């Protein structure tokens, strides 16, 4: 039967065009995404940057601390504490030693990622004075030559102050950082932590002096001390997290489209298969023929898709780079390395498995065709609902509704995990696709009801064509259903979740006004003190720090916010479920309920500066994952300089009763002028915070939606081309019955619009199930919150899908109309 399968493919290549294109696209996406993942695990060595001129670098050693398991900017306990003065003296005994400190230091108007260092360490990063001299006092700095000139007075924002410095010299800019250099004493005052040491003595002596107290880096390992190493890790983690989700969604969509198009091809060939049965072919031989066709199609498409994925992987990488997901240096290079060959081989096998698996149901259906069907004059679908189809439809319906109901009632936190929830949204959409053949009849009658009394036969023909070819109609409507349903569900879920977070933040903040960073990563303490001096103004500026809990031989870390208890109660409305914020004092803390700590218990906490504290749990409040922090008393403010950058991410402002609001707000604006902070209302703060917080979620879900839409748009076009091109007999019958070319075209266009409408209606039904589950989950998490629907975008997706369906119809019909009706009948017979 392999020869028969090959001859069938040659003779009816149009019938398999949709399957080939769908498989090529699916395999190409799997290959490209697999290449991205494996490339991320085997990256080329990045060049050493800040310590390229240093022989040996000593930095804190963090055994058991895997940076990939923590957010960017979270330091290990050893890195937060820094190197000790004792270790510095031991290393200094081996030879010349230079102390490096890295801290927030931003020129007014400069980029947010500017960093401060002591001047002596500059030479190891390739910095050379182009003008002036090194800082000779605490009031002098050296800056890049494109930022200021020697002798200029510049304002430098740091965690503790906003101070003017004199530029004593300039250096040529470098590509890996934008730095401001201070004297050693001033750098030590601004940042007490010693981040690393450059040891110029013999490497063996340095290693002996350090022992197991710290890590000694040489050669390529020195890149571990570069700031870009952590940033690269974060972006690569995002890539590795996002790509498998995109691949699973694309793969599932490909499987469904391939299965649908194979089933459609069998429906189109019922008469041919019946003729084979009439001349003696057994059901087993027919099934084998269909499976052989699947192998041939799958092998060809998998090979083409693998090659396309190899050369298209960089295009996908470029898309992720443009969205800020992957680092800008991330490249995929074709080679014979295992990181290239393994994902390509896997993608090829996936293509074969998808093809054979997608054709399995079609093969069984082909084997059940009876020889008597060869005598039928009309090529009409079997429109009866088989027990298997009814059972599958019932399972799909229960599965889609049941899964969504479980998320809404039993596991609402699922909606907060983009990687899991994206896959969950597919369940009702795929269930609707499975139910499509059962829904074609009722939907066709309903959608054609307004034209039941229309003049002319077009409306009646369109309706009856859909009703007598339900499988064909369902197969051609499936890509529209997937495109609109998945895009609608993903985009509406993203916007609704963002709106719910906005509402939750709005409810938690009770202050009327706030300070937020103004092109800076945070707000300096000096700025907070200036605002606090305004009469009638109360301000709370939580400082972000890190707290650690010992868990056997490892540490668990959590964010902490250092804030005055009275200010906390005045500005934030925490949902306290146990204890009271009134009990907060200098030796206690408030923790999230997710941490499962009892009120009144005493916890041993390691602070970022290396000190160990015993703190009593005074209150437990309700929090979502990602919003759980420990609220700490003000005496731990200094730990913020060790844990992070010592800046307040925001500040909340209230006015005493009777305060002149206009005068107070004017004084606040004057106090923060040019300080890297901006004064705003609570609503403005909520909008800005929400936009920042949901950025990565939107990138993940919207990028997945883009991949789905690109795939499904092409699937719509090729499926309609395949369906319409194979209906030359229908076109010939219309022509011989006296229909003009315009009437024939009108019939096929109207039928295409009906098919698209059926797909859109099913997509809306599936999306309604998804949004109902989303509303229930959000209600449990945030209370009453609206469902936000991006109507314009969804309408645009539906319109584009319909236009592509029309294009897939008009092109083959227009080509066929150029031939005479008699020739078309002869070619068919």
Automatic annotation (TrEMBL):
Q: Kindly indicate whether the keyword Kinase belongs to this entry.
A: no
Report the locations given in the UniProt record: Cell membrane
Residue stretches making up the MacB-like periplasmic core domain: 474-670
Q: How does it sit in the membrane?
A: Multi-pass membrane protein
Task: Kindly indicate whether the keyword DNA damage belongs to this entry.
Answer: no
Q: Which UniProt keywords apply?
A: Cell membrane, Membrane, Transmembrane, Transmembrane helix
Enumerate the spans annotated as ABC3 transporter permease C-terminal domain: 246-371, 705-818
Where do transmembrane segments lie in this chain?
242-267, 294-316, 336-361, 390-408, 420-444, 473-493, 704-723, 744-768, 788-811
Query: Which protein family is named in the record?
Result: Belongs to the ABC-4 integral membrane protein family.
Q: What is this protein called?
A: ABC transporter permease
Organism this protein belongs to: Streptomyces thinghirensis
């Amino acid at each position: 039967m392999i020869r028969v399968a090959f001859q069938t493919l040659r003779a009816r290549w149009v019938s398999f065009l949709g399957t080939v294109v769908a498989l090529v696209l699916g395999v190409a996406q799997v290959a490209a995404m697999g290449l991205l993942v494996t490339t991320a695990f085997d990256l080329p060595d990045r060049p050493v940057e800040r310590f390229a001129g240093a022989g040996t670098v000593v930095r804190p050693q963090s055994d058991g601390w895997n940076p990939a398991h923590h957010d960017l900017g979270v330091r290990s306990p050893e890195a937060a504490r820094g190197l000790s003065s004792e270790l510095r003296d031991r290393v200094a005994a081996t030879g010349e030693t230079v102390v490096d400190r890295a801290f927030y230091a931003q020129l007014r108007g400069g980029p947010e990622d500017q960093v401060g260092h002591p001047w002596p360490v500059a030479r190891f990063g390739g910095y050379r004075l182009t003008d002036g001299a090194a800082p000779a006092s605490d009031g002098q700095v050296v800056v890049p030559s494109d930022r200021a000139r020697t002798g200029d007075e510049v304002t430098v924002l740091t965690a503790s102050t906003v101070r003017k410095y004199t530029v004593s010299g300039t250096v040529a800019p470098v590509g890996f950082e934008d730095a401001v250099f201070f004297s050693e004493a001033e750098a030590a005052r601004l940042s007490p932590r010693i981040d690393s040491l450059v040891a110029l003595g013999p490497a063996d002596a340095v290693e002996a002096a350090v022992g197991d107290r710290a890590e000694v880096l040489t050669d390529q390992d020195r890149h571990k001390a570069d700031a870009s190493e952590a940033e690269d890790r974060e972006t690569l983690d995002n890539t590795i997290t996002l790509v498998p989700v995109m691949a699973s969604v694309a793969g599932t969509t490909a499987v469904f489209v391939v299965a649908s198009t194979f089933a459609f091809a069998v429906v189109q060939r019922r008469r041919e298969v019946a003729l084979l049965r009439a001349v003696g072919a057994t059901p087993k031989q027919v099934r084998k023929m269909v499976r052989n066709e699947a192998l041939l199609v799958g092998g060809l498409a998998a090979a083409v898709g693998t090659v396309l994925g190899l050369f298209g992987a960089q295009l996908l990488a470029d898309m992720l780079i443009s969205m800020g997901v992957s680092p800008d240096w991330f490249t995929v290079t074709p080679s014979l390395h295992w990181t290239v060959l393994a994902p390509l081989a896997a993608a090829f096998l996936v293509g074969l498995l998808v093809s054979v698996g997608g054709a399995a149901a079609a093969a069984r259906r082909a084997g059940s065709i009876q020889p008597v069907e060869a005598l039928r004059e009309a090529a009409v679908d079997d429109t009866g609902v088989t027990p298997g189809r009814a059972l599958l439809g019932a399972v799909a319906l229960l599965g889609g509704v049941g899964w969504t109901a479980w998320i809404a009632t039993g596991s609402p936190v699922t909606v907060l995990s983009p990687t899991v929830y994206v896959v969950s949204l597919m369940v009702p959409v795929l269930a609707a696709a499975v139910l499509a053949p059962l829904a074609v009849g009722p939907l066709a009658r309903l959608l054609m009801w307004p034209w039941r009394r229309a003049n002319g036969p077009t409306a009646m023909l369109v309706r009856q064509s859909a009703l007598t070819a339900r499988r064909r109609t369902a197969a051609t409507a499936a890509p529209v259903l997937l495109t609109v349903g998945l895009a609608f569900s993903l985009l509406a879920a993203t916007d609704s979740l963002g709106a719910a977070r906005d509402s939750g933040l709005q409810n938690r903040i009770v202050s009327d006004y706030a300070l937020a960073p103004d092109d800076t990563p945070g707000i300096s303490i000096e700025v907070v003190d200036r605002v606090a001096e305004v009469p009638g103004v109360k301000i709370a500026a939580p400082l972000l720090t890190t707290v650690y809990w010992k868990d056997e031989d490892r540490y668990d870390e959590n964010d902490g916010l250092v804030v005055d208890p009275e200010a906390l109660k005045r500005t934030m409305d925490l949902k306290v479920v146990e204890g009271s914020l009134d009990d907060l004092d200098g030796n206690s803390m408030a923790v999230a309920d997710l941490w499962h700590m009892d009120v009144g218990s005493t916890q041993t906490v390691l602070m970022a500066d290396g000190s160990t504290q015993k703190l009593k749990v005074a209150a437990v409040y309700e929090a979502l994952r990602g919003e759980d922090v420990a609220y700490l008393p003000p005496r731990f403010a200094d730990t913020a300089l060790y844990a992070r950058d010592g800046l307040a991410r925001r500040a909340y402002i209230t006015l005493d009763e009777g305060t002149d609001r206009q005068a107070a707000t004017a004084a606040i604006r004057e106090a923060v002028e040019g300080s890297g902070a901006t004064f705003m209302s609570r609503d403005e703060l909520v909008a800005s915070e929400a936009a920042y917080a949901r950025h990565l979620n939107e990138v993940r879900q919207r990028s997945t939606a883009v991949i789905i839409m690109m795939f499904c748009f092409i699937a719509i076009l090729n499926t309609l081309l395949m369906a319409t091109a194979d209906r030359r007999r229908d076109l010939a019958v219309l022509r011989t019955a006296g229909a003009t070319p315009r009437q024939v075209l009108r019939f096929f266009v109207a039928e295409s619009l009906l098919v698209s409408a059926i797909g859109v209606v099913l997509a809306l039904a599936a999306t309604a199930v998804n949004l109902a589950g989303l509303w229930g989950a959000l209600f449990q998490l945030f209370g009453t919150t609206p469902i936000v629907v991006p109507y314009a975008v969804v309408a645009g997706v539906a319109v584009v899908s319909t236009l592509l369906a029309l294009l897939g119809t008009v092109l083959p019909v227009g080509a066929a109309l150029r031939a005479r009706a008699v020739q078309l009948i002869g070619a068919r017979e």
